[in-house]
UniProtKB/TrEMBL annotation:
<dbReference type="Pfam" id="PF03466">
    <property type="entry name" value="LysR_substrate"/>
</dbReference>
<dbReference type="InterPro" id="IPR036390">
    <property type="entry name" value="WH_DNA-bd_sf"/>
</dbReference>
<keyword id="KW-0805">Transcription regulation</keyword>
<dbReference type="InterPro" id="IPR000847">
    <property type="entry name" value="LysR_HTH_N"/>
</dbReference>
<comment type="similarity">
    <text>Belongs to the LysR transcriptional regulatory family.</text>
</comment>
<protein>
    <submittedName>
        <fullName>LysR family transcriptional regulator</fullName>
    </submittedName>
</protein>
<dbReference type="InterPro" id="IPR036388">
    <property type="entry name" value="WH-like_DNA-bd_sf"/>
</dbReference>
<dbReference type="InterPro" id="IPR005119">
    <property type="entry name" value="LysR_subst-bd"/>
</dbReference>
<keyword id="KW-0238">DNA-binding</keyword>
<dbReference type="Pfam" id="PF00126">
    <property type="entry name" value="HTH_1"/>
</dbReference>
<keyword id="KW-0804">Transcription</keyword>
<feature type="domain" description="HTH lysR-type">
    <location>
        <begin position="1"/>
        <end position="58"/>
    </location>
</feature>
<dbReference type="InterPro" id="IPR050950">
    <property type="entry name" value="HTH-type_LysR_regulators"/>
</dbReference>
Length: 308
């Protein structure tokens, strides 16, 4: 048994085809099949159900797959760390970020990082905190930058706060609400709400405002330009980070909404932005350098203004 065989087995479970998996790994199908058979011989059991057209792993195959993923990822991380130990002139960095920090902070940090370390391959995904936490747990990324409220009390995660990101409500010019002299939060729920994935505390606040036991937005997307276009084309009310929509508001493409009876705990609508990593996990030199860059840029920018 070797890492090559484990990589082939992982590819087989992903592609569910000997032909496609062999092609993805760059070897002939007979050689690929012999490698899988050799792995089965090594363990003394069948790892894939060949009678099933989807080639699903057997129970033994599931166990092998779980360990194979950890071993292959560990080997890749080991190789990456050794290459990066001195000059950060090789290797790869993978991390994630939420929609709010993806507007300014993360692009600025990546630009500065690749300027200092151009030979490090830098990959980051933009998604909501829920999906990013799953990617972190699967070791697909080393850390992510997003709202940290859901992770601060969890011993499995380590959090480092950054400046909060201001949240606001907005709509299109000509929206029916703009004809009113004063807006109540009751008016808000007469229209669809469009937002990114919101933390449980914000959901509870909106549920309380709506008089319901729970709240789910009518439209949910992590792609802020799409959110902007939906609000511009409909009567939906948008909720999102100010830094993403300030320019459109300044140019008259969107209008910020103010509610006369917002509750005192409105600050929960602001994103408590921070860095989330796994407890007890040693970050690679590239990850540590990127985090230092993020923190430095965040401090230079100063605290983000909060909704008042």
């Amino acid at each position: 048994m070797d890492l090559r065989q484990l990589r082939y087995f992982i590819a087989l479970t992903e592609h569910r085809s000997f032909v496609r998996a062999a092609d993805a790994m760059g070897i002939t199908q007979p050689a690929f099949s012999r490698s899988i058979q050799g792995l089965e011989h090594e363990f003394g059991c069948v790892l894939v159900d060949r009678a099933n057209k989807d080639l699903r792993p057997t129970p033994e195959g599931q166990v092998v797959l779980q360990h194979a993923l950890r071993l292959v990822q560990g080997a890749a991380q080991l190789s990456c760390e050794v290459q990066q130990m001195t000059k950060l002139d090789a290797g790869e960095l993978r991390f994630g970020c939420g929609p709010a920090p993806a507007v300014n902070l993360v692009p600025q940090a990546v630009a500065q990082f690749i300027g200092a370390h151009p030979k490090v391959r830098t990959c980051f995904e933009v998604d909501n905190w829920e999906k990013l936490s799953r990617a972190l747990s699967r070791e697909e990324i080393e850390f992510f930058v997003a709202d940290i409220r859901h992770f601060e009390a969890d011993p499995n995660f380590q959090t480092q706060p950054l400046s909060p990101r201001r949240g606001l409500f907005f709509c299109r010019p000509g929206h029916p609400l703009l004809a009113k002299d004063s807006l109540s939060t009751n008016d808000m729920f007469d229209y669809p709400l469009a937002t990114t994935l919101i933390p449980p505390g914000v959901r509870k606040l909106l549920a309380n405002l709506s008089g319901k036991t729970d709240f789910s937005p009518s439209i949910e997307t992590e792609h802020l330009p799409t959110l902007l276009k939906i609000v511009q084309a409909t009567d939906a009310i948008g909720i999102g980070p100010q830094e993403a929509f300030a320019e459109a508001i300044a140019q008259g493409e969107l209008v910020r909404l103010h509610w006369r009876n917002l509750p005192a705990n409105l600050e929960s609508l602001n994103a408590r932005c921070g860095i989330v990593s796994r407890s007890g996990y040693r970050l690679s030199p590239a990850a540590r350098a990127m985090i230092e860059t993020l923190i430095s840029l965040d401090r230079q920018a100063g605290p983000q203004a909060l909704v008042g």
